[in-house]
Amino acid sequence: MTLLDRPRTTAPHRTPDARPEAPTGAATPSSAPALLEAERPADVVAFVERIARLTTPDQIHWVDGSTRERHALLQQLVAAGTLTQLNPDIRPYSFLARSDERDVARVEERTFICSEREEDAGPTNNWMAPEQMRAELEPLFTGSMRGRTLYVVPFAMGPIGSTMTRYGVQLTDSPYVVVSMGTMTRMGSAALAQIARGASWVPAVHSVGAPLESGQQDVPWPCNETKYIAHFPQEREIWSYGSAYGGNAILAKKAFALRIASAMARDEGWLAEHMLLIKVTSPAGKVYHMAAAFPSACGKTNLAMLTPTTPGWTVETIGDDIAWLHIGKDGRLRAINPEAGFFGVAPGTGLSTNRTAVDTLWGNTIFTNVALREDGDVWWEGLTDTPPARLIDWRGEEWTPDSGRPAAHPNSRFTVAAHQAPSIADTWDDPEGVVIDAIIFGGRRRALAPLVVEARDWDHGVFMGATISSEQTAAAEGTVGQLRRDPFAMLPFAGYNMADYFAHWLDFGKRLRRSARVPRVFQVNWFRKNADGKFLWPGFGENGRVIEWMVARLESEACVDETPLGGIPRPGELNVAGLDLPEEDLAELFHMDTDELEAEADDVERFFATFGDKLPAELRHQLSHLRSRIRAKRETESTTA
Ligand code: OXD
Ligand code: MN
Questions:
Q1: Which of 104, 106, 339 to mutate to test the pocket of ligand 1 (most atoms within 8 A of CB)?
Q2: pLDDT digits 0-9 by tens, 448-495
Q3: Which of 275, 296, 300 is the best mutation target for the ligand 1 pocket, counting ligand atoms within 8 Å of the beta carbon and taking the most?
Q4: Closest alpha carbon to 524 in 559, 491, 489, 556
Q5: CB-based contacts of 574-577 (< 8 A; 24+ apart in sequence)
Q6: Span 191-244, pLDDT tens digits
Q7: Which residue, judged by its Cα, is nearest atom 4 of ligand 1?
């Protein structure tokens, strides 16, 4: 056994019936008095001791999650040059971090699923055998925290005490990660107290991989060229090395709440999804909840904070990135947002596009890789229509509008508490979750995918989710603009074989059908362009019109016209009143070219073939139904031609 192996006697993954205390009403505050040393759970203590022996930090700090502690960490980060405090008169208690230029996005190539069998990771994940990964990690982590502090970060994903909530303990040598975890999760003593009472917990180890020799001057953004983001889904364990970028280092988020949680969800019968959550209220005062999956940087935060332009409609935010869905005691599909903050993409978030997000960021925000204004505030592309005359760009260099390069990194981020959003729903942290009426899938497609289309039923909806494709953005390293299949927007986030994940969704639908009303499933595409490359749909607040049509469908007040891809709004039923949208643009938004449809079906077939025999038969049936609908369309076209 090596230091990386978890001793069997202290396995923190207890049986699921070891539940924390029942919730005490609404949201439980995340801060609580620090636990005395003697009250710390023995298995967490053993984990900390084992990792400290391996990584040899100078000190160990048990994070309590208090405001005083956060303040001290922020001051320390300013003194170290990692953070610059922004002008407190303009942006109170807010900070700017500039990362190392080589540490700006998720590193999918270096992200691994280490299941015993390669087929359990599947063709969409990088796989490495657990022993091999441990053998590669051990020398890297040996002494990796020398000269630094090891922070013990207990956290809860979900409201403390909810039966849907899961717990974790991240060990990290990055104070930037600690303050980020403090915003993104319920971090500190309250979570540790639940673990002490018997809640299961996931261990996560993170090191920036930059040990300091005695007397060595630190750099503002320590990291390492070598990077590993390793997940052990069977052991429910995470190891991350070499990066401090949020998506690689805030392990509660993508690593735990999606990759490890998806494996837990498969075993325990729920869904861990890359979905935003919204509460929609109609002019009649009726409330609906929707969960929506979009690939990274396709406007999830914008939809989560949507201000509908049509009178009487409101959209409130519950979550902007991750949703955990389960069948509640009442048999309804219920969801929680397991996070406590937003780690959003700054560029494109502007006064004219998402005023709510801009208002959310009034203060108490950590910005990473945006530009600095002369007055000590921040700026990024899209914040205002006209850029300031002079800026310091994300690399720390002088910038003017003529510089010919972006001032903010395209994947620059803000980290802010969810409750700071003026649009936050009062039920956002309800321990019971909210009842889901509709599920939305979306992607960024220049052509073919219509503005909105409704699935025929759950299984067709699973086919829609399984075939999401999108033009790649800057959230991960890779070629921007290239089309890639991103099933359920989970391509980089499923912690097990994607084909088994499809099967889990199909199976979940069967359980839903037995117990409750099955939510409707829709697919949207805000990004369709005309032949001149101009967006056909205004997007942003106008997307509320599409939500309005979905609600009309839920209420059986609108009809669909069947197409090969599903049901589209009957002419005249999508509310476009007052919109400057020429008839031909509206038609183009729903136009499906038969050749393009065929090419799409061929592409889906090639994609499905990558899963071999594991692909559920139902998805093959769905594809052949699609092909027959395309054939029928072609026949109608040839008889009417
Ligand atoms: C994110 C992502 O950061 O999806 O949310 O990459
Ligand atoms: Mn995301």
A1: 106
A2: 999 999 999 999 999 999 999 998 766 565 666 678 899 999 999 999
A3: 296
A4: 489
A5: 574/451, 574/452, 574/545, 574/546, 574/549, 575/310, 575/545, 575/548, 575/549, 576/545
A6: 999 999 999 999 999 999 999 999 999 999 999 999 999 999 999 999 999 999
A7: 296
For the purposes of burial, counting CB atoms within 10 Å of the CB of 461, is it exposed (0-12), middle (13-18) or buried (19 or more)?
Answer: buried
Question: Which ligand minimizes its atom distance to the CA of 273?
Answer: 2
Q: How far is the CA of 405 from the centre of ligand 1 (A)?
A: 23
Q: What is the pLDDT of residue 22?
A: 34
In 493-616, where does DSSP find H-type helix? Answer: 498-515, 544-554, 583-590, 594-609
Instruction: For ligand 1, say whether the CB of 106 is within 6 Å of any of its atoms.
Output: yes
Q: Is the dihedral of CA 614, 335, 539, 405 positive or negative?
A: negative
324: its two tokens? 């955990």
User: Which residue stretches of the chain have pLDDT < 70?
Assistant: 1-31, 473-481
Q: Is 223 a catalytic residue?
A: no
CA of 341 to the centre of ligand 1 (A): 13
Rounded distance from Cα 558 to ligand 1 centre (Å): 34
Please report the pLDDT score of residue 476 as a whole number.
Answer: 61
The amino acid sitting at 430 is D
Q: What is the pTM of this model?
A: 0.94
Place of tokens 């929609």: 280
Q: Which amino acid is at 331?
A: G
Q: Determine whether the shortest distance from the Cβ of 321 to ligand 1 is under 6 A.
A: yes
